[in-house]
Write a structure and sequence with these properties.
By secondary structure, the protein is of the alpha+beta class. Helices cover 22% and strands 30% of the residues. Strands 16, 17, 20, 21, 22, 23, 24 and 25 form an eight-stranded antiparallel β-sheet that branches. It has a six-stranded mixed β-sheet with strand order 10-15-14-13-11-12, with helices on both faces. A hairpin with a 6-residue loop joins strand 18 and strand 19. Helix 7 packs parallel to helix 13 and helix 8 packs parallel to helix 9. It starts with 19 loop residues before the first strand and ends with a strand.
Length: 573
């Protein structure tokens, strides 16, 4: 030991730690830019996420303990202290750790913040909950934040919850690195190829790329396609890994003659995807391959698969006759919707890659007895993959590509018109409308919805680290702009189906709206049902006959002093 060692001369005995479990363990993170030029990482723990992390990463099986993690009162009863470890390249950097509780009345501002300034040198900093001043508005466990002095700062973090007396936690299982070159890994990946389908279009895109022709590779889906859980989100996401693997297979450098379009939006289903497709994909380029990833986002689809079927057909019938590949990702509870949706790929003979088929069975085997990757290695949280998980997703598609590359080329199925849609296809030709897109197709009077909201859901597109707002050309009702008077937004148009997209929010300043078609109330829009800044698409009216209708959108009773944002519309004639 150096004589210049600056540690304490008479250190106290270490405080004995209570039993505990990890909710994050050696997790890679990278800070996103904030408005003040600093960096932040948000990790949401509400809606069962914290409980899921305790099960997957902490190996907690006692349901009574897990249930305590949902509420602030339960958390205080169970947890004695929080240990946080952070490692950055700059060991002298101090990172602010915040564990935020959500409030009953003021969801994001009313709850307690447990704050700890942690040096990024790998030493654990422990905060006892007995030192915290708790707020009366505390309701549920909310989110964790890591606040950095600079954006794009990479770190490895661990968070451990130490338990109060009377509670026990299992011994921590040693992690092992995933051996991507092993025979067992390759066997696992092979299971993800559910079917190769008709290979004509996929082989055609690969040969075009090899010959130097322009090829566009596009991705549409939810937050996993956006890249959630990947660090950094722009280079380590499955979409980028698939794109790079495709380029390697074609013998092309990245972004030479192969273009990359990533259009994932967190928390959104194919119901919104079909309204986004033209703007988010076709305006960027004419795709030769489109990966469709909605198998974990479509649970709330009010048509139970018709939007997905319609989107697949819309893409397939595109100008460039693209290859459509269905990608079935998976949640940490082993669930997805492939049993509902695989009939679409089977009916249309499309390539299908199932991440669930590859990883779930082996999760429950022992190390050395067939387990290749653990859940804690695969999942960033209960919904999203880690870098390892994103790579596994990409490798499933690249295995499909290898198989297809070695096959004789099939005759193309030029159109799906002669094939009965297994889920229905009434939405295949839906038209998106907002202030700038197709506005001339309807007669619209904005009434009191005269403002434009810029506090929108924002996502990282393509290779961007900055975020792009969704539906920026919207119609917002702001009571401050209307002097106490209110006029409904009205639309006169011919259609058989009418959809509305509105902005969800947990903000107390946001109210509710009602939609009337030909004088009859057909929809009640409540942005707080979802409760975060999010795009919500809904069917407002549906019939089998196209005819002229009059629509009025009004603020609901008690909401005239609140805001409401209509992001856009969709009509089927």
């Amino acid at each position: 030991m150096s004589e210049n060692f600056n540690g304490p001369k008479a250190p106290k005995d270490p405080t004995k730690k209570n039993p505990g479990f990890f909710i994050m363990r050696n997790k890679g993170i990278s800070s996103s830019p904030t408005d003040d030029g600093k960096g932040v990482v948000y990790i949401y723990e509400s809606d069962g996420r914290l409980k899921s992390s305790a099960k997957i990463i902490g190996n907690i099986t006692d349901e009574s303990m897990l249930d305590l993690l949902d509420t602030t009162e339960g958390f205080k009863k169970l947890v004695h202290s929080i240990g946080v470890t952070i490692e950055c390249d700059d060991k002298d950097e101090t990172v602010r750790f915040v564990f935020q509780m959500y409030g009953k009345i003021d969801a994001y501002g009313g709850g307690t913040n447990i704050i700890s300034d942690v040096k990024a040198d790998g030493m654990e900093k422990v905060t006892e909950l007995s030192s915290i001043s708790w707020r009366e508005d505390d309701d549920v466990t909310g989110q964790i934040r890591f606040e950095f002095e600079r954006p794009s700062t990479k770190a490895t973090v661990s968070v451990k919850l130490y338990l109060n007396d009377g509670y026990e936690a299992p011994e921590v299982e040693d992690e092992f690195p995933v051996d991507f070159s092993s025979k067992e890994y390759q066997e696992m990946i092979a299971k993800s190829v559910m079917q190769t389908g008709n290979n004509h279009r996929l082989k055609n895109a690969l040969e075009k790329a090899r010959s130097g022709e322009e090829v566009t590779f596009a991705f549409i889906g939810g937050s996993i396609t956006q890249g959630a859980g990947a660090v950094p989100i722009n280079t380590e996401c499955y979409a980028r890994k698939m794109f790079e693997g495709f380029c390697d297979k074609a013998g092309r450098t990245y972004d030479s003659n192969v273009k990359y379009i990533k259009a994932g939006v967190g928390g959104t289903p194919s119901e919104l995807g079909i309204l986004r497709y033209d703007e988010d994909i076709l305006k960027e380029g004419t795709p030769d391959i489109v990966i469709v990833e909605f198998a974990v986002n479509d649970e709330g689809d009010e048509t139970k698969g018709e939007f997905y079927d319609s989107l697949v057909r819309r893409i397939y019938h595109g100008e460039q006759r693209p290859a459509v590949v269905l990608l079935f990702s998976v949640f940490a509870d082993d669930g997805n919707l492939q049993e509902r949706l695989k009939c679409v790929g089977e009916s249309y003979k499309l390539p299908i890659v199932s991440v669930k088929d590859a990883v779930v069975d082996q999760f429950y085997k022992k190390t050395g007895e067939g387990r290749v990757v653990t859940k804690s290695q695969f999942f960033y949280d209960m919904f999203h993959p880690t870098n390892v998980g994103h790579r596994i997703m990409a490798d499933g598609f690249l295995k499909l590509l290898d198989i297809v590359d070695g096959m004789e080329q099939d005759q193309d199925i030029e159109s799906l018109e002669g094939i009965k849609p297994p889920k229905g296809a009434d939405f295949e030709n839906v038209i998106r409308i907002d202030r700038k897109v197709n506005a001339s197709l309807i007669r619209l009077d904005e009434g009191s919805f005269t403002s434009v909201n810029d506090e929108l859901q924002k996502v990282e597109r393509n290779m961007d680290l900055f975020t792009t707002p969704q539906f920026p050309d919207n119609y917002m009702y702001n009571p401050k702009d209307n002097n106490g008077e209110f006029k409904p937004l009205t639309i006169d148009a011919e259609f058989k189906i009418f959809m509305m997209v509105f902005l969800d929010s947990a903000d107390n300043k946001v109210g509710k709206a009602e939609v009337f078609v030909d004088g009859e109330k057909t929809y009640y829009a409540d942005p707080k049902v979802v409760g975060w800044t999010h795009c919500n698409a809904a069917i407002v009216y549906r019939s089998n006959e196209s005819k002229k209708h009059h629509i009025e959108i009004k603020m609901a009773d008690g909401s005239l002093n609140k805001e409401f944002t209509i992001l856009g519309f969709g009509i089927v004639k």
